[in-house]
Design a protein that fits this description.
The complex is a heterodimer of chains A (575) and B (497). Chain A is an all-alpha fold. Chain A contains 32 helices and one strand. The chains are: A mainly alpha (575), B mainly beta (497).
Chain lengths: 575, 497
């Protein structure tokens, strides 16, 4: 097998695994990057990027991240960036070790694997990878031939501006190269000196802290925190170049083949283990649910929940939303684990990841101002000070539904400068009244409330009161009605359930969980009114009697669970 | 070549070309309109100071205008400047020369707009150029118009004679802490108070060339210092201490209500680090907020409301405008509280009193209820005449929509106000000139190089604006160093001996 074939084979294997991982296993994790992004094609946006060190790399990265809205382009972009890193690493290795060794070629996949691990960790941004590509590209083209003193100065200054503090890797590579090759040490020292001074100069001009200017500000979500994965990514090319520079040459022959096989297997195996150890399946699951909810794929959510029951609050929230949207919340709620009323609308304070799913639920349930609150908080409070087009769209949607056209127009104009939100924004910019012709918006329009009642959206009682107001006004069996009764059921508040039962009519048969709850009224809590009695079928009554008998007979928890685990009675008794 | 350029024929040809191109710049087949031009920002009939930056404008947002031609004429009707394009871009030097020449008079604008149907000529409008000078600039905070969370923000200074904006302090510099209420003493750029909240909480004071970071929490004052107002002597600062919360409306028409669950007014003696805590402004049965000293420093104004249970009683809270005598020599207060504007009787709420520095007026926000006016569309500025007790609407400074946080220029002839009149969400700054009759001329939006683009792309609200009579003496590195050091000057409740 020729070396070229080996290279193509190795690159193909890597690409295949990467594409499979990002398109099949973990596409929604990348989608979240897009969720936190607003990328308008405006001069102002570009100018903002050009005014800070690393801004150009951030701009390029964000340009690509907007395509993360779709999983295949996202996977292709990420894989392509990894391959670019591999190609650049390989070039660097050959500069440091003027030898074509296939073992070194296999080792050139270490940097892409580090980038992969870096991207698997929540909060790390694609900017880090783009900046690293930029730094390695410049280092490769710089080191291929002797450069002038002017070139050192200009390259270091420009690279710092283009890629930010990761340019430090460039000067360290220069230094390592000059030491290993025993040449141009003065120029390398000059590059180090320039790099040492540059953050100070920028610090005088812009309001970034020195730490941010030395270590980096735009490579991860929280500017003041520097994850270990970032340092591993940043220093891996330097470390490898030094090691490779010091290693003895591997000559062609049997030993070279074995060293290639061993190093390829080791790099890929350890790299994959690193990826698996560092990726976070729970985030992927939450983002998957979030993505499905965003696209109103309620069947998709329930299919997923049927395969693997929801484990977190955010997942339970999405499943409950899907059930409500399919008019099944009051029949099938207990087919899935229920964390209590907070599984309907988790509080915003729980964190901005949970707020994604919670925001979707309150929006679909008609709690428009609460949804606006959640969306706006998300829109403006990402720790890296960026704003989000997705949340901007949600705020605009709510303002359109609420008839606040001037405010909506403000956001629509911003969105009209983006690539993937433009079409939607332009529709409503031209005709805000078109909101009534969209079936989902038209549904939510019915829930628009004009009563000036103040609520705290961290209060469950207030949320319930808002639902009650919507249902009382609407008078129909609806998503808010399902949520209202589900709230009472999950809160084990039969008194409240009783007051809400007849706020709206049921479509045909009374949902089974409501029947089960009403059956509990009888004899246990209230004097049951005839119209309440009429809600419960004889089979439910019989089943409830069986449940009570089982309890009285002292049957074990497992026995009761296996027989009645999906009933409201079981949930109610598990306080 | 040389010969050709010198020939009379070439000269004629060049002249012909120039005149043809000039002629082609003029609108052809122009339809006259009886309306004022639909421009944004609305600068029609505003009064501006001589030193203001070019008042650029463009067609109103919803219009599809292909081209616009604007002629500026002086008071005699002579055309002195022409601008062409989809928005005006008046040259800075020429603009200032024109304003200098026309001070005390007016300039008029003839606007022609080209749409798909051709050119339309609108009736000219005027800008009046006041003889009253305006201060060097403004300071303000830029912050996303949020709910509970806060993200990126910064304190800025803007030179009013051009478009230069300087960032004084960015939230990054204080580890993402909230920075707010940058307040100068009567526009003095060397004396100011600034709060930082978060992990490195402090109140940063600069006065008499000294800088210090205060820890303003004491056992008896419950919370941090909040809304500041300097005593004219610079020896005291009136502060409120507030526990501000938010609740949300179910209504599609309103978004949220901010209120104080409790609030008091204190006076901080700057040199002694003593909090003066008069019982009259620290009552448990009342909410007191928004302190402000009179021009002579002998009266402390503030807003005060009956105690209420919140948010239930939010709409019942009516803040009256009150005053209490203050002796700056001894740091003592008079016994009697005067109610200048009785909120319950007038079924309104009066907040943010800002006495003019000439001692004639108090500019106050009037709304239906409450103390913080975010989302109060009805909030307008009113003027209380300290000389005769007359109380009237402030006039042209108000717009449709919420107008609230305001401050005076050092000569008390101009005022700046935050307003959400454009889109109901993002606050923008309007400056208005005070007439001799005690009302304001029509306010104008803070000019920008390209206001249509600038304001539509700006995702921040303007907040807590104030005039500054010079460049603010602010070294962000010093501030950062002090704030991050955790060294804090303590304060204590007491009296001045």
């Amino acid at each position: 097998m020729s070396d070229t074939v080996k290279k193509i084979l190795l690159a193909s294997i890597f690409s295949f695994i990467s594409l499979w991982f990002w398109i099949v296993l973990s596409p929604n994790f990348l989608h979240f990057h897009e969720t936190t992004l607003f990328f308008p094609y405006t001069w102002t946006h570009l100018k903002e990027a050009l005014c800070v060190p690393g801004g150009p790399a951030r701009y390029v990265a964000e340009f690509f991240v907007q395509f993360f809205l779709f999983k295949v382009p996202a996977g292709i972009i990420v894989t392509a960036s990894f391959l670019l890193l591999q190609v650049l690493s390989w070039k660097l290795f050959r500069i440091f070790k003027e030898q074509e060794s296939m073992a070194l070629y296999a080792m050139s996949f270490i940097v892409p694997f580090c980038a992969w691990i870096y991207l698997c960790i929540f909060g790390n941004l694609f900017t880090g990878i783009v900046a690293l590509c930029g730094v390695l590209a410049v280092a490769c083209s710089y080191l291929v031939k002797p450069r002038s003193w002017t070139a050192v100065i200009i390259t270091t200054i420009l690279l710092y501006w283009l890629c930010g503090p990761l340019a430090g890797l460039f000067v360290l590579l220069l230094l390592a190269y000059s030491i290993l090759k025993k040449k141009d040490f003065g120029k390398a020292a000059l590059a180090v000196a320039i790099f040492a001074v540059l953050p100070f100069i920028w610090h005088l001009c812009i309001q970034y802290t020195l730490k941010e200017l030395y270590i980096g500000a735009d490579y991860y979500h929280e500017p003041q925190h520097w994850p270990l994965s970032y340092f591993i990514l940043a220093f891996s090319p330097l470390f490898l170049c030094i090691v490779i520079g010091l290693l003895p040459s591997i000559h062609k022959g049997r030993g070279a083949t074995w060293s290639f096989i061993v190093s390829a297997v080791a790099v890929f195996l350890l790299g994959w283990i690193g990826v698996i150890k560092n990726c976070n399946p729970s985030y992927e699951r939450i983002f998957k649910y979030d993505n499905l909810a965003l696209h109103q794929d309620w069947d998709g959510i329930l299919d997923k929940a049927n395969k693997v029951p929801p484990r977190s609050l955010a997942e339970a929230t999405s499943v409950n939303l899907a059930l409500a949207m399919k008019d099944r919340l009051l029949t099938d709620m207990f087919l899935y684990p229920q964390p209590g009323p907070s599984g309907l609308f988790p509080d915003y304070a729980s964190g901005y990841v949970i707020a994604l799913t919670s925001g979707e639920s309150v929006f679909r349930a008609g709690l428009l101002n609460t949804a606006r609150h959640y969306a706006f908080e998300e829109y403006e409070s990402y720790p890296n000070y960026r704003v989000s087009a997705r949340h901007m769209k949600r705020v605009a949607e709510i303002d359109l539904i609420n008839g606040r056209y001037p405010t909506a127009r403000r956001f629509l104009k911003d969105l009209s400068h983006t690539l993937f939100y433009r079409k939607w924004a332009k529709t409503y910019l031209q005709d805000p009244g078109a909101v009534s012709s969209d079936p989902e918006y038209a549904r939510l329009l019915q829930y628009r409330d004009h009563s000036e009642w103040l609520f705290s959206d961290s209060s469950d009682d207030d949320k319930r009161e808002m639902l009650r107001n919507i249902v009382a006004k609407d008078g129909k069996y609806s998503v808010p009605f399902e949520y209202l009764l589900a709230y009472d059921l999950l809160a084990r508040d039969l008194f409240s359930l009783r007051t809400h039962l007849f706020l709206a009519g049921f479509n045909g048969e009374v949902p089974i969980l409501v029947q089960q709850a009403v059956a509990m009224f009888d004899g246990a809590f209230f004097e049951v009114a005839p119209e309440e009695q009429a809600l419960v079928s004889q089979s439910v009554r019989d089943e409830y009697n069986e449940f009570r008998t089982a309890l009285l007979e002292g049957k074990t928890g497992n026995e009761i669970k296996s027989r009645f685990g999906k009933t409201y009675w079981y949930y109610y008794s598990q306080k | 070549m040389k010969q050709l350029s010198q020939s009379p024929l070439t000269l004629v040809a060049v002249l012909l070309l120039v005149s043809v191109s000039l002629f082609s710049c003029k609108p052809t087949e122009t339809v006259s309109s009886e309306d004022l031009p639909p421009i944004w920002p609305d600068y029609v009939d505003v009064t501006i100071p001589e030193g203001i930056a070019p008042m650029n404008f463009g067609p109103a947002d919803s219009l599809d205008v292909k081209d616009m031609r604007v002629e500026i004429r002086n008071h005699t009707g002579k055309t002195i400047m022409v601008s062409r394009g989809t928005a005006t871009r008046f040259p800075l030097r020429m603009w200032h020369r024109i304003l200098r020449e026309e001070t005390g008079s007016f300039i008029s604008f003839q606007v022609d707009m080209k749409s798909e149907n051709g050119w339309t000529r609108y009736i000219p409008f005027k800008m009046h150029i006041s003889q009253d000078p305006i201060d060097y600039g403004l300071t303000y905070r830029l912050i996303p118009p949020g709910y509970q969370s806060f993200g990126h923000m910064g304190i800025f200074e803007r030179n009013l004679s051009n478009f230069h904006q300087r960032e004084l302090l960015d939230t990054r510099m204080v580890n993402s802490g909230c920075i707010n209420c940058h307040t100068q003493n009567r526009t003095d750029p060397s004396t100011f108070s600034l709060h930082i909240r978060g992990a490195h909480s402090a109140t940063f004071l600069k006065h008499d060339g000294k800088s210090e970071c205060l820890n303003t929490v004491t056992d008896s004052t419950k919370g941090f210092f909040v809304y500041p107002y300097w005593h004219p002597s610079g020896k005291y600062i009136g502060y409120s201490t507030n526990a501000t919360r938010q609740s949300f409306y179910t209504s599609a028409d309103k978004m949220l209500e901010s209120y104080d669950e409790w609030s008091d007014v204190i006076v901080y003696a700057v040199d002694q680090h003593i909090i003066l805590r008069p019982p009259q402004t620290n009552r448990s049965d009342r909410f007191e907020s928004w302190p402000a000293f009179s021009a002579d420093g002998k009266t402390l104004f503030y807003s005060s409301s009956q105690f209420g249970r919140l948010p239930r009683d939010a709409k019942k809270l009516h803040y009256s405008l009150c005053s209490i005598p203050f002796d700056p020599e001894t740091g003592t207060f008079g016994e009697t509280v005067d109610t200048l504007l009785n909120a319950d009787r007038m079924n309104s709420s009066f907040n943010l009193p800002r006495p003019s520095y000439d001692g004639k007026y108090i500019l106050v926000t009037r709304s239906d209820f409450g103390t913080l006016q975010a989302g109060h569309k009805e909030a307008d500025l009113w003027i209380y005449d300290l000389r005769n007790g007359d109380f009237h609407n402030a006039g042209g400074i108000n717009g449709i929509g919420q107008d609230s946080f305001h401050n005076w220029s050092s000569n008390s002839r101009w005022a700046v106000v935050c307003s959400r009149r454009e889109d109901g969400l993002y606050t923008r700054l309007y400056i208005a000139h005070m007439r001799d009759d005690g009302t304001f001329d029509k306010g104008f939006l803070l000019p920008q190089r390209n206001p249509g683009k600038y304001y539509y792309e700006l995702i921040y609200s303007y907040n807590t604006p104030d005039f500054t009579s010079g460049k603010v003496q602010f070294n962000r590195h010093t501030v950062r160093k002090m704030v991050m050091s955790h060294e804090r000057q303590g304060v204590e409740v007491g009296t001045i001996n």
